[in-house]
């Protein structure tokens, strides 16, 4: 119906144009009809394209997660945390190795940011020793994850099958060490009865979950590679 109205609308425009004095340089009626037909056709195509776009657009602002991303996140203990973190990031390649790399990058950024948050509340007078410890622990965890990433990037440059038992073993050890730092922070806060803000508490949960996600992906890498290749 919309397209018919559009056509009627154009008919009206051309009627009005006919009333313009003949002195104005109007195209010949036949070519104007062709022009109206072309414009109408383009409009109809645009409406069809827009309508199709509305129905295929996902409800979230992020592009829909690829099937490989869903499959990789499904092997982790926190698939939703994994999907949320990785879908909002630009994932160029969707093989399990690239997904592992990206999840480590996101984890290291989050961990480092959390360390900065702890450091900033440590600046408040009446400092709590547990808060100071947490700032150090998460900074340590961040360096640990960054070194893991550098190692992976270096191994990948060598080409071939870089995900050897040794590399996988090392990566698992380093991520576990970073996770232990997170646990030590939580234990310290609890033991000292230190109260931190809800925002930091929530971020600690997310960060710790994200590290578990990384550990799960690397632990299941062999299986994932079999599925994907
Ligand atoms: C880890 O690397 C990220 C990204 O390069 C950086 O923002 C962060 O400060 C690093 N963290 C630490 C603890 O070095």
Automatic annotation (TrEMBL):
Entry keywords, A to Z: Disulfide bond, Glycoprotein, Membrane, Signal, Transmembrane, Transmembrane helix
Keyword Transferase in annotation: no
Coiled coil: none
Domain Pectinesterase inhibitor: 64-217
One example GO MF annotation: pectinesterase activity
EC number: 3.1.1.11
Region feature (Disordered): 1-30
Leading EC class: hydrolase
Membrane spanning residue stretches: 35-55
Superkingdom classification of source: Eukaryota
Pfam family, one: PMEI
InterPro entries: Invertase/methylesterase_inhib (IPR035513), Pectinesterase_inhib_dom (IPR006501), PME_Inhibitor (IPR051955)
Family of the protein in this entry: In the C-terminal section; belongs to the pectinesterase family. Belongs to the PMEI family.
Protein name (record): pectinesterase
Source organism per UniProt: Raphanus sativus (Radish)
Organism taxonomic ancestry: Eukaryota, Viridiplantae, Streptophyta, Embryophyta, Tracheophyta
Name of the gene encoding the protein in the UniProt record: LOC108811987
């Amino acid at each position: 119906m919309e397209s018919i109205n559009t056509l009627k609308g154009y008919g009206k425009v051309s009627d009005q144009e006919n009333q313009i004095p003949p002195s104005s340089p109007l195209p010949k009626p036949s070519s104007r009809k062709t022009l109206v037909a072309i414009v109408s056709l383009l409009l109809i195509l645009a409406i069809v394209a827009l309508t199709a776009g509305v129905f295929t657009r996902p409800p979230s602002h992020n592009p829909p997660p690829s099937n490989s991303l869903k499959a990789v996140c499904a092997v982790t203990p926190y698939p939703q945390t994994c999907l949320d973190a990785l879908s909002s990031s630009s994932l160029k390649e969707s093989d399990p190795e690239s997904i592992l790399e990206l999840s480590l990058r996101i984890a290291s950024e989050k961990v480092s940011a959390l360390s900065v948050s702890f450091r900033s509340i440590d600046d408040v007078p009446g400092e709590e020793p547990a808060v100071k410890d947490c700032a150090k622990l998460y900074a340590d965890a961040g360096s640990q994850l960054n070194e893991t990433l550098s190692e992976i990037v270096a191994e990948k440059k060598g080409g071939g099958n870089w995900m050897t038992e040794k590399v996988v073993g090392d990566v698992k050890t380093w991520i576990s060490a970073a996770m232990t730092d997170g646990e030590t922070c939580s234990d310290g806060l609890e033991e000292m009865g230190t109260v931190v803000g809800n925002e930091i508490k929530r971020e600690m949960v997310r960060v710790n979950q994200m590290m578990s996600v990384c550990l799960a992906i690397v632990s299941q890498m062999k299986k994932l590679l079999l599925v994907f290749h």
